[in-house]
Amino acid sequence: MKPGAFMKIRIDRIISIATLTASLAALVLVLKRPAPVAEPQPAPAIAANAQSFQNKIEHLEQARAQGQSGAEVRLNAQEIAAAIAQASGDLPASATSSAPAGAGATPLSGDLGAGEATVKDYQVNFEGDLAKGQFLTRIAGKDVWVTMEGHLGSKDGYATFEPTKIKIGDLEVPVSLVNDQLQKRLSEQRDRLKLPDNVGGMKVENSEVVLTNK
Question: Is the pTM of this model over 0.70?
């Protein structure tokens, strides 16, 4: 065998091994559970935060009824997480008994429709002007965690989300590769993004969601 041919075989084998190693490493990262974006809340805290969320929304409506345009309320991550748990029917049994009347009456299913992935174990948090979300879904028959960071806002009465970071498992994915598909999916789920009639604007500021009335 000529030296050049032998060297080519060695290089090809090294490339094959390197490719296999990289693929295995990527698979491990995809299936690995990332650090949670928020700490779980005990049942009494969930009930209290769900009630606090409801009280603030009612305050916004009262301000509107009194003609106070531009009034605002601030919601922290714990209140938002509790509201999501309440809307999705995921309140723990001990919290359900003390939650506001009607809690869980309209479950927020994670199933996005026929043939779509089911998402569960929602987590939310806010840092500065960024919103962070994390959920568990199934991809190719495997449970995989998806983490997103980005800017939450509103336009024409609907919530908007512009991602700045996306991770599948512990593997970061370039936003440019998935943003078009994400925005398409959000537009298909537009009805779920509609803000309450009394909310005129929404943004994240100082690690809180700021809602203003119309």
Answer: yes
